[in-house]
Design goal:
The N and C termini lie far apart (about 80 Å). The chain has six helices and no strands. It is elongated and about 80 Å long. Helix content is about 65%, strand content about 0%. Helix 4 runs antiparallel to helix 5.
Length: about 150
Amino acid sequence: MYEPIRSKSVHTTMAGTTSDFPHRSREEELDIQLAGHLAALLAVTDELRTLAPEAGLDAAAERLAAQVSRLRGGHAPVRTSVAAVAEPVTLHRRAHALAGRALVVAASRADTAAAILAAERMDAHAAAQAAAVRGKPQTARENPQKLSGAAH
């Protein structure tokens, strides 16, 4: 009635062997994830720059590009000059969400520079979103610290 198992268990086979593909460390995975969030934030920032070119957005884009390059081992992010399709309020909302995701990952890997940049971008996009909702777009002349993310 009972027939003994003739082959080894799948579970012991999998646990006892080493795989042929390389594994990444948690730190490497977080670097990849953070670089992706910052690159997406850079893309939205570039879209906003096509709608309304401003020195604050230019400076933020350069800082984002530098962080992405650092996280990717010196490889510069791909940048496009595509015209924005969405409304500025929508773009600021999307940028705020992306900056929030980047902040969470930067905090989990203790990357202070990226966390500060992400927090500054969250503040800047929240302020720009609020100004756009009020019907008055915020410019760098009115509040250069909020739009550029510069800390004093």
